[in-house]
Amino acid sequence: MAGIWGNRKKEREAQAAQDAEETRRAGAALVAIDERLRTTSDELVYAEAELGTEAVRPVRDAIEAVRQHLAEAFHLHQLNHDEIPDTSEELRTRSARIIQLCEWAEDLLDDRTEALAAPIERARRAPEIVAGIRRDAERLSARLPQTKTTLERLAARYSTDALRKVSGNHAEAEQLLSFALHGAEISERRRESGQREQANLALETAIEAIRRATTLIDAVDSYEVEALRAESTLDAIVLDSREDLAAARDIAHVPDVAAAMSTLERELTALTPAGALADPFAELTRLREANAALDVVVARVRERAARPVIPEAHVRHAVEDADRQLGVARSVISGHRGWIGADARTRLAEAERIRLDLATVVSGPVEEDDRERALADARRCGMLAAEALQLAQRDIDSSRPRDDDWGGGWGGRGGGRGGGGDVMGGILGGLVIGSILDGIFD
User: Fold this and answer.
1) pLDDT in tens, 68-89
2) Above 90 in pLDDT, residue 260?
3) Which of 26, 226, 253, 303 would be 98's cystine partner, CB 3.0–4.6 Å?
4) Residue 147 to residues 66, 138, 142, 153, 208: CA-CA distances in angstroms?
5) Please, which residues have CB within 8 angstroms of residue 91's CB and are 6 or more apart in sequence?
6) How many angstroms separate the CA atoms of 23 and 16, rounded?
7) 295-350 per-position pLDDT tens digit
8) Cα–Cα distance between 370 and 376 in angstroms, integer?
9) 413-426 burial code (b ≥16 CB/10 A, e <16)
Protein backbone atom coordinates (compact mmCIF):
# COMPACT_ATOMS: atom_id res chain seq x y z
CA MET A 1 0.00 0.00 0.00
CA ALA A 2 2.85 2.35 0.82
CA GLY A 3 4.20 1.80 -2.69
CA ILE A 4 0.91 2.96 -4.25
CA TRP A 5 0.81 6.15 -2.18
CA GLY A 6 4.46 6.79 -2.97
CA ASN A 7 3.84 6.48 -6.69
CA ARG A 8 0.91 8.88 -6.51
CA LYS A 9 3.01 11.42 -4.62
CA LYS A 10 5.71 11.22 -7.30
CA GLU A 11 3.11 11.72 -10.03
CA ARG A 12 1.74 14.80 -8.27
CA GLU A 13 5.21 16.24 -7.85
CA ALA A 14 6.03 15.60 -11.52
CA GLN A 15 2.79 17.25 -12.62
CA ALA A 16 3.41 20.24 -10.36
CA ALA A 17 6.90 20.65 -11.81
CA GLN A 18 5.50 20.47 -15.33
CA ASP A 19 2.83 23.06 -14.49
CA ALA A 20 5.45 25.36 -13.00
CA GLU A 21 7.60 25.05 -16.14
CA GLU A 22 4.58 25.83 -18.33
CA THR A 23 3.79 28.89 -16.25
CA ARG A 24 7.42 30.04 -16.51
CA ARG A 25 7.32 29.61 -20.31
CA ALA A 26 4.13 31.62 -20.51
CA GLY A 27 5.68 34.45 -18.50
CA ALA A 28 8.85 34.45 -20.62
CA ALA A 29 6.81 34.51 -23.85
CA LEU A 30 4.76 37.42 -22.51
CA VAL A 31 7.87 39.43 -21.67
CA ALA A 32 9.42 38.66 -25.08
CA ILE A 33 6.37 39.74 -27.09
CA ASP A 34 5.95 42.86 -24.99
CA GLU A 35 9.54 43.83 -25.79
CA ARG A 36 9.00 42.97 -29.46
CA LEU A 37 5.92 45.21 -29.52
CA ARG A 38 7.90 48.10 -28.09
CA THR A 39 10.73 47.78 -30.61
CA THR A 40 8.30 47.39 -33.51
CA SER A 41 6.48 50.55 -32.42
CA ASP A 42 9.80 52.41 -32.40
CA GLU A 43 10.71 51.06 -35.85
CA LEU A 44 7.31 52.13 -37.12
CA VAL A 45 8.23 55.76 -36.49
CA TYR A 46 11.33 55.47 -38.68
CA ALA A 47 9.47 53.44 -41.34
CA GLU A 48 6.75 56.08 -41.50
CA ALA A 49 9.37 58.78 -41.96
CA GLU A 50 10.90 56.81 -44.84
CA LEU A 51 7.76 55.54 -46.56
CA GLY A 52 4.88 57.74 -45.49
CA THR A 53 1.75 57.12 -43.43
CA GLU A 54 -0.22 55.04 -45.89
CA ALA A 55 2.60 52.61 -46.65
CA VAL A 56 3.04 51.59 -42.99
CA ARG A 57 -0.69 51.25 -42.24
CA PRO A 58 -0.59 47.41 -42.24
CA VAL A 59 2.10 47.45 -39.53
CA ARG A 60 0.19 49.98 -37.45
CA ASP A 61 -2.98 47.87 -37.67
CA ALA A 62 -1.01 44.79 -36.64
CA ILE A 63 0.42 46.60 -33.59
CA GLU A 64 -3.08 47.63 -32.49
CA ALA A 65 -4.38 44.07 -32.87
CA VAL A 66 -1.46 42.67 -30.86
CA ARG A 67 -2.02 45.18 -28.06
CA GLN A 68 -5.66 44.20 -27.77
CA HIS A 69 -4.88 40.50 -27.52
CA LEU A 70 -1.95 41.02 -25.17
CA ALA A 71 -4.36 42.65 -22.74
CA GLU A 72 -6.07 39.26 -22.46
CA ALA A 73 -2.70 37.53 -22.02
CA PHE A 74 -1.64 39.87 -19.19
CA HIS A 75 -4.99 39.34 -17.49
CA LEU A 76 -4.56 35.56 -17.61
CA HIS A 77 -1.02 35.91 -16.29
CA GLN A 78 -2.30 37.99 -13.39
CA LEU A 79 -4.88 35.33 -12.54
CA ASN A 80 -2.11 32.71 -12.40
CA HIS A 81 -0.26 34.74 -9.75
CA ASP A 82 -3.02 36.26 -7.58
CA GLU A 83 -3.88 35.17 -4.06
CA ILE A 84 -6.87 33.09 -5.12
CA PRO A 85 -5.87 29.41 -5.30
CA ASP A 86 -6.34 27.73 -8.64
CA THR A 87 -6.51 24.12 -9.76
CA SER A 88 -3.75 22.61 -11.85
CA GLU A 89 -6.10 22.37 -14.81
CA GLU A 90 -6.86 26.10 -14.66
CA LEU A 91 -3.18 26.98 -14.51
CA ARG A 92 -2.37 24.77 -17.48
CA THR A 93 -5.25 26.17 -19.55
CA ARG A 94 -4.25 29.79 -18.88
CA SER A 95 -0.58 29.18 -19.58
CA ALA A 96 -1.38 27.43 -22.86
CA ARG A 97 -3.61 30.33 -23.90
CA ILE A 98 -0.90 32.90 -23.05
CA ILE A 99 1.67 31.01 -25.13
CA GLN A 100 -0.80 30.73 -28.02
CA LEU A 101 -1.49 34.47 -28.01
CA CYS A 102 2.21 35.32 -27.88
CA GLU A 103 3.05 33.01 -30.78
CA TRP A 104 0.22 34.48 -32.86
CA ALA A 105 1.47 38.01 -32.12
CA GLU A 106 5.02 37.10 -33.12
CA ASP A 107 3.84 35.61 -36.43
CA LEU A 108 1.67 38.64 -37.22
CA LEU A 109 4.42 41.15 -36.52
CA ASP A 110 6.94 39.10 -38.50
CA ASP A 111 4.63 38.99 -41.52
CA ARG A 112 3.90 42.72 -41.52
CA THR A 113 7.44 43.93 -40.86
CA GLU A 114 8.99 41.58 -43.44
CA ALA A 115 6.66 43.05 -46.09
CA LEU A 116 8.13 46.50 -45.35
CA ALA A 117 11.77 45.43 -45.29
CA ALA A 118 12.32 45.77 -49.05
CA PRO A 119 10.55 49.15 -49.45
CA ILE A 120 12.47 50.57 -46.48
CA GLU A 121 15.76 49.36 -47.88
CA ARG A 122 14.89 50.85 -51.26
CA ALA A 123 13.90 54.17 -49.67
CA ARG A 124 17.16 54.37 -47.72
CA ARG A 125 19.12 53.67 -50.89
CA ALA A 126 17.05 56.11 -52.95
CA PRO A 127 19.97 58.36 -54.01
CA GLU A 128 21.98 55.35 -55.11
CA ILE A 129 19.00 53.87 -56.98
CA VAL A 130 18.28 57.16 -58.76
CA ALA A 131 21.87 57.33 -59.94
CA GLY A 132 21.57 53.75 -61.22
CA ILE A 133 18.36 54.61 -63.09
CA ARG A 134 20.14 57.45 -64.88
CA ARG A 135 23.06 55.19 -65.82
CA ASP A 136 20.71 52.48 -67.13
CA ALA A 137 18.69 55.03 -69.10
CA GLU A 138 21.84 56.35 -70.72
CA ARG A 139 23.07 52.86 -71.57
CA LEU A 140 19.71 51.80 -73.04
CA SER A 141 19.39 55.05 -74.99
CA ALA A 142 22.69 54.25 -76.66
CA ARG A 143 21.17 50.95 -77.83
CA LEU A 144 18.08 52.53 -79.38
CA PRO A 145 19.68 53.39 -82.77
CA GLN A 146 20.81 49.80 -83.14
CA THR A 147 17.32 48.60 -82.22
CA LYS A 148 15.80 50.84 -84.88
CA THR A 149 18.26 49.54 -87.49
CA THR A 150 17.42 45.94 -86.54
CA LEU A 151 13.70 46.58 -86.93
CA GLU A 152 14.27 48.10 -90.38
CA ARG A 153 16.29 45.06 -91.38
CA LEU A 154 13.56 42.74 -90.11
CA ALA A 155 10.86 44.71 -91.92
CA ALA A 156 12.71 44.19 -95.21
CA ARG A 157 12.71 40.42 -94.66
CA TYR A 158 9.52 39.50 -92.81
CA SER A 159 5.83 40.34 -93.12
CA THR A 160 3.93 42.83 -91.01
CA ASP A 161 2.11 40.03 -89.20
CA ALA A 162 5.41 38.39 -88.34
CA LEU A 163 6.75 41.63 -86.81
CA ARG A 164 3.58 42.52 -84.95
CA LYS A 165 5.09 41.59 -81.58
CA VAL A 166 8.22 43.77 -81.90
CA SER A 167 7.44 46.45 -84.46
CA GLY A 168 6.58 49.05 -81.80
CA ASN A 169 9.32 48.16 -79.34
CA HIS A 170 11.66 51.00 -80.36
CA ALA A 171 9.11 53.78 -79.88
CA GLU A 172 7.74 52.27 -76.65
CA ALA A 173 11.21 51.79 -75.16
CA GLU A 174 12.09 55.38 -76.00
CA GLN A 175 9.01 56.64 -74.17
CA LEU A 176 9.71 54.42 -71.16
CA LEU A 177 13.27 55.71 -70.84
CA SER A 178 12.02 59.30 -70.89
CA PHE A 179 9.39 58.40 -68.29
CA ALA A 180 12.01 56.73 -66.06
CA LEU A 181 14.23 59.82 -66.07
CA HIS A 182 11.23 62.01 -65.30
CA GLY A 183 10.19 59.71 -62.45
CA ALA A 184 13.70 59.75 -60.96
CA GLU A 185 13.69 63.55 -61.05
CA ILE A 186 10.28 63.72 -59.35
CA SER A 187 11.44 61.27 -56.70
CA GLU A 188 14.42 63.45 -55.84
CA ARG A 189 12.31 66.61 -55.60
CA ARG A 190 9.61 64.99 -53.47
CA ARG A 191 12.17 63.51 -51.11
CA GLU A 192 13.89 66.84 -50.66
CA SER A 193 10.54 68.47 -49.82
CA GLY A 194 9.71 65.78 -47.25
CA GLN A 195 7.01 64.04 -49.31
CA ARG A 196 8.48 60.58 -48.78
CA GLU A 197 5.45 58.57 -49.83
CA GLN A 198 5.19 60.30 -53.21
CA ALA A 199 8.95 60.10 -53.65
CA ASN A 200 8.92 56.32 -53.12
CA LEU A 201 6.02 55.87 -55.52
CA ALA A 202 7.85 57.84 -58.23
CA LEU A 203 10.98 55.81 -57.60
CA GLU A 204 9.16 52.49 -57.98
CA THR A 205 7.55 53.58 -61.25
CA ALA A 206 10.95 54.68 -62.59
CA ILE A 207 12.46 51.31 -61.69
CA GLU A 208 9.61 49.49 -63.46
CA ALA A 209 9.96 51.70 -66.55
CA ILE A 210 13.67 50.84 -66.83
CA ARG A 211 12.86 47.13 -66.47
CA ARG A 212 10.22 47.23 -69.23
CA ALA A 213 12.43 49.24 -71.57
CA THR A 214 15.23 46.71 -71.14
CA THR A 215 12.83 43.86 -71.95
CA LEU A 216 11.57 45.56 -75.11
CA ILE A 217 15.06 46.31 -76.47
CA ASP A 218 16.32 42.80 -75.70
CA ALA A 219 13.22 41.32 -77.38
CA VAL A 220 14.16 42.88 -80.74
CA ASP A 221 17.63 41.31 -80.69
CA SER A 222 16.21 37.96 -79.59
CA TYR A 223 13.52 38.08 -82.26
CA GLU A 224 16.04 38.34 -85.08
CA VAL A 225 17.89 35.28 -83.80
CA GLU A 226 14.66 33.32 -83.29
CA ALA A 227 13.41 34.24 -86.76
CA LEU A 228 16.61 32.91 -88.34
CA ARG A 229 16.29 29.72 -86.31
CA ALA A 230 12.64 29.37 -87.39
CA GLU A 231 13.64 29.73 -91.06
CA SER A 232 16.29 27.05 -90.68
CA THR A 233 13.85 24.70 -88.94
CA LEU A 234 11.21 25.41 -91.59
CA ASP A 235 13.61 24.36 -94.37
CA ALA A 236 14.31 21.09 -92.56
CA ILE A 237 10.61 20.35 -92.05
CA VAL A 238 9.85 21.12 -95.70
CA LEU A 239 12.43 18.52 -96.75
CA ASP A 240 11.11 16.02 -94.19
CA SER A 241 7.52 16.62 -95.29
CA ARG A 242 8.32 15.91 -98.93
CA GLU A 243 10.05 12.68 -97.93
CA ASP A 244 7.07 11.68 -95.79
CA LEU A 245 4.69 12.34 -98.69
CA ALA A 246 6.78 10.16 -100.99
CA ALA A 247 6.93 7.37 -98.38
CA ALA A 248 3.15 7.45 -97.87
CA ARG A 249 2.22 7.02 -101.55
CA ASP A 250 1.82 3.25 -101.19
CA ILE A 251 -0.97 3.66 -98.64
CA ALA A 252 -2.56 6.78 -100.11
CA HIS A 253 -5.71 4.73 -100.85
CA VAL A 254 -6.54 4.80 -97.11
CA PRO A 255 -8.93 7.75 -96.56
CA ASP A 256 -7.23 9.03 -93.40
CA VAL A 257 -3.82 8.96 -95.06
CA ALA A 258 -5.15 10.67 -98.17
CA ALA A 259 -6.70 13.47 -96.10
CA ALA A 260 -3.49 14.00 -94.09
CA MET A 261 -1.41 14.03 -97.28
CA SER A 262 -3.74 16.56 -98.85
CA THR A 263 -3.44 18.86 -95.83
CA LEU A 264 0.35 18.65 -95.82
CA GLU A 265 0.58 19.29 -99.57
CA ARG A 266 -1.69 22.30 -99.17
CA GLU A 267 0.56 23.75 -96.45
CA LEU A 268 3.64 23.19 -98.59
CA THR A 269 1.98 24.97 -101.50
CA ALA A 270 0.98 27.88 -99.26
CA LEU A 271 4.56 28.61 -98.18
CA THR A 272 5.77 32.11 -99.04
CA PRO A 273 7.80 32.10 -102.27
CA ALA A 274 11.42 33.21 -102.26
CA GLY A 275 11.89 36.96 -102.22
CA ALA A 276 8.49 37.72 -100.65
CA LEU A 277 7.91 38.85 -97.06
CA ALA A 278 7.20 35.79 -94.94
CA ASP A 279 6.05 34.88 -91.46
CA PRO A 280 8.36 31.97 -90.59
CA PHE A 281 6.80 31.41 -87.17
CA ALA A 282 3.23 30.96 -88.43
CA GLU A 283 4.33 28.86 -91.41
CA LEU A 284 6.49 26.69 -89.19
CA THR A 285 3.60 26.07 -86.80
CA ARG A 286 1.14 25.10 -89.54
CA LEU A 287 3.60 22.91 -91.44
CA ARG A 288 4.78 21.17 -88.27
CA GLU A 289 1.19 20.33 -87.26
CA ALA A 290 0.36 18.96 -90.72
CA ASN A 291 3.59 16.92 -90.81
CA ALA A 292 2.96 15.47 -87.35
CA ALA A 293 -0.64 14.58 -88.28
CA LEU A 294 0.55 12.64 -91.32
CA ASP A 295 3.16 10.81 -89.24
CA VAL A 296 0.52 9.72 -86.73
CA VAL A 297 -1.90 8.47 -89.38
CA VAL A 298 0.78 6.61 -91.35
CA ALA A 299 2.14 4.96 -88.21
CA ARG A 300 -1.35 3.81 -87.22
CA VAL A 301 -2.12 2.42 -90.67
CA ARG A 302 1.20 0.58 -90.95
CA GLU A 303 0.82 -0.84 -87.47
CA ARG A 304 -2.64 -2.07 -88.36
CA ALA A 305 -1.31 -3.64 -91.55
CA ALA A 306 1.43 -5.43 -89.64
CA ARG A 307 -1.10 -6.90 -87.23
CA PRO A 308 -4.09 -8.71 -88.79
CA VAL A 309 -7.46 -7.32 -87.85
CA ILE A 310 -9.45 -9.56 -85.54
CA PRO A 311 -12.75 -10.61 -87.16
CA GLU A 312 -15.77 -9.16 -85.44
CA ALA A 313 -17.31 -12.64 -85.28
CA HIS A 314 -14.53 -13.74 -82.91
CA VAL A 315 -15.32 -10.86 -80.60
CA ARG A 316 -19.04 -11.68 -80.66
CA HIS A 317 -18.31 -15.33 -79.95
CA ALA A 318 -16.11 -14.44 -76.97
CA VAL A 319 -18.79 -12.12 -75.61
CA GLU A 320 -21.45 -14.81 -75.96
CA ASP A 321 -19.21 -17.33 -74.18
CA ALA A 322 -18.59 -14.83 -71.38
CA ASP A 323 -22.35 -14.28 -71.07
CA ARG A 324 -22.93 -18.04 -70.77
CA GLN A 325 -20.32 -18.41 -68.08
CA LEU A 326 -21.62 -15.34 -66.28
CA GLY A 327 -25.14 -16.71 -66.37
CA VAL A 328 -24.12 -20.05 -64.88
CA ALA A 329 -21.97 -18.46 -62.16
CA ARG A 330 -24.65 -15.92 -61.31
CA SER A 331 -27.29 -18.65 -61.09
CA VAL A 332 -25.22 -20.90 -58.83
CA ILE A 333 -24.12 -18.11 -56.50
CA SER A 334 -27.57 -16.56 -56.20
CA GLY A 335 -29.06 -20.00 -55.50
CA HIS A 336 -26.65 -20.69 -52.60
CA ARG A 337 -26.25 -17.24 -51.04
CA GLY A 338 -25.72 -18.50 -47.53
CA TRP A 339 -22.92 -20.83 -48.57
CA ILE A 340 -20.85 -18.62 -50.91
CA GLY A 341 -17.79 -16.82 -49.55
CA ALA A 342 -16.21 -13.49 -50.44
CA ASP A 343 -13.75 -14.84 -53.05
CA ALA A 344 -16.42 -16.15 -55.38
CA ARG A 345 -18.57 -13.05 -54.96
CA THR A 346 -15.57 -10.80 -55.70
CA ARG A 347 -14.74 -12.67 -58.93
CA LEU A 348 -18.35 -12.48 -60.04
CA ALA A 349 -18.59 -8.74 -59.26
CA GLU A 350 -15.42 -8.03 -61.24
CA ALA A 351 -16.65 -10.10 -64.17
CA GLU A 352 -19.96 -8.24 -64.20
CA ARG A 353 -18.13 -4.89 -64.07
CA ILE A 354 -16.03 -5.84 -67.11
CA ARG A 355 -19.14 -7.01 -68.95
CA LEU A 356 -20.86 -3.73 -68.20
CA ASP A 357 -17.92 -1.75 -69.63
CA LEU A 358 -17.84 -4.08 -72.61
CA ALA A 359 -21.50 -3.42 -73.39
CA THR A 360 -20.78 0.08 -74.72
CA VAL A 361 -18.23 -1.32 -77.21
CA VAL A 362 -20.24 -4.25 -78.55
CA SER A 363 -23.66 -2.58 -78.56
CA GLY A 364 -23.15 -1.80 -82.28
CA PRO A 365 -20.54 -2.63 -84.92
CA VAL A 366 -17.17 -3.09 -83.22
CA GLU A 367 -14.52 -0.79 -84.66
CA GLU A 368 -11.31 -2.44 -85.84
CA ASP A 369 -9.20 -0.49 -83.35
CA ASP A 370 -11.40 -1.69 -80.46
CA ARG A 371 -11.62 -5.38 -81.31
CA GLU A 372 -8.39 -6.53 -79.69
CA ARG A 373 -9.25 -4.85 -76.41
CA ALA A 374 -12.85 -6.05 -76.57
CA LEU A 375 -11.72 -9.64 -77.19
CA ALA A 376 -9.32 -9.49 -74.24
CA ASP A 377 -12.01 -8.06 -71.97
CA ALA A 378 -14.52 -10.70 -73.02
CA ARG A 379 -12.06 -13.49 -72.33
CA ARG A 380 -11.16 -12.03 -68.96
CA CYS A 381 -14.83 -11.70 -68.10
CA GLY A 382 -15.39 -15.35 -68.92
CA MET A 383 -12.29 -16.42 -66.99
CA LEU A 384 -13.40 -14.52 -63.88
CA ALA A 385 -16.88 -16.01 -64.15
CA ALA A 386 -15.36 -19.52 -64.39
CA GLU A 387 -13.17 -18.82 -61.35
CA ALA A 388 -16.20 -17.53 -59.46
CA LEU A 389 -18.02 -20.76 -60.30
CA GLN A 390 -15.11 -22.92 -59.16
CA LEU A 391 -14.80 -21.00 -55.89
CA ALA A 392 -18.55 -21.22 -55.38
CA GLN A 393 -18.41 -25.02 -55.86
CA ARG A 394 -15.60 -25.19 -53.32
CA ASP A 395 -17.67 -23.21 -50.81
CA ILE A 396 -20.75 -25.34 -51.46
CA ASP A 397 -18.79 -28.60 -51.03
CA SER A 398 -17.23 -27.38 -47.80
CA SER A 399 -20.59 -26.23 -46.43
CA ARG A 400 -22.64 -29.32 -47.45
CA PRO A 401 -23.04 -31.90 -44.63
CA ARG A 402 -20.74 -34.89 -44.99
CA ASP A 403 -22.04 -38.43 -45.43
CA ASP A 404 -21.09 -39.23 -41.84
CA ASP A 405 -23.28 -36.37 -40.62
CA TRP A 406 -26.31 -37.97 -42.28
CA GLY A 407 -25.58 -41.29 -40.65
CA GLY A 408 -25.21 -43.23 -43.85
CA GLY A 409 -22.45 -44.61 -45.95
CA TRP A 410 -22.75 -45.18 -49.65
CA GLY A 411 -26.31 -46.18 -49.17
CA GLY A 412 -27.30 -43.28 -46.95
CA ARG A 413 -28.92 -40.01 -47.88
CA GLY A 414 -25.68 -38.50 -48.96
CA GLY A 415 -24.69 -41.60 -50.84
CA GLY A 416 -23.43 -41.48 -54.36
CA ARG A 417 -20.66 -38.93 -54.62
CA GLY A 418 -22.16 -37.82 -57.91
CA GLY A 419 -24.96 -35.51 -56.81
CA GLY A 420 -24.27 -31.81 -57.02
CA GLY A 421 -20.53 -32.37 -57.54
CA ASP A 422 -21.11 -34.25 -60.80
CA VAL A 423 -23.54 -31.61 -62.02
CA MET A 424 -21.08 -28.85 -61.20
CA GLY A 425 -18.29 -30.81 -62.83
CA GLY A 426 -20.35 -31.05 -65.99
CA ILE A 427 -20.95 -27.31 -65.95
CA LEU A 428 -17.27 -26.57 -65.49
CA GLY A 429 -16.39 -29.05 -68.21
CA GLY A 430 -18.74 -27.32 -70.59
CA LEU A 431 -17.17 -24.00 -69.78
CA VAL A 432 -13.68 -25.32 -70.39
CA ILE A 433 -14.76 -26.85 -73.68
CA GLY A 434 -16.32 -23.51 -74.65
CA SER A 435 -13.04 -21.73 -73.94
CA ILE A 436 -11.12 -24.27 -76.03
CA LEU A 437 -13.50 -23.88 -78.95
CA ASP A 438 -13.22 -20.11 -78.62
CA GLY A 439 -9.45 -20.38 -78.96
CA ILE A 440 -9.85 -22.60 -82.03
CA PHE A 441 -12.09 -20.00 -83.67
CA ASP A 442 -9.54 -17.31 -82.91
Assistant:
1) 888 888 888 788 776 676 677 8
2) yes
3) 26
4) 55, 15, 10, 10, 20
5) 19, 22, 23, 80
6) 10
7) 999 998 888 777 777 888 888 899 999 999 999 998 988 888 778 889 999 999 99
8) 10
9) ebeeeeeeeeebee
Instruction: Give the model's pLDDT for residue 33.
Output: 84
**pLDDT over 80 at 124, yes or no:** no
Number of H helices, E strands in the chain: 13, 0
Residue 129 carries which side chain, given as an amino acid letter? Answer: I
Q: Which amino acid is at 120?
A: I
Question: What is the average pLDDT across 80-100?
Answer: 78
C-alpha torsion 433→434→436→439, nearest 10: 170
d(CA 277, CA 271): 11
Percent of the chain residues past pLDDT 90, beyond the cut: 36
- What pLDDT does 312 receive? 85
* Dist CA 97 CA 104 (whole Å): 11
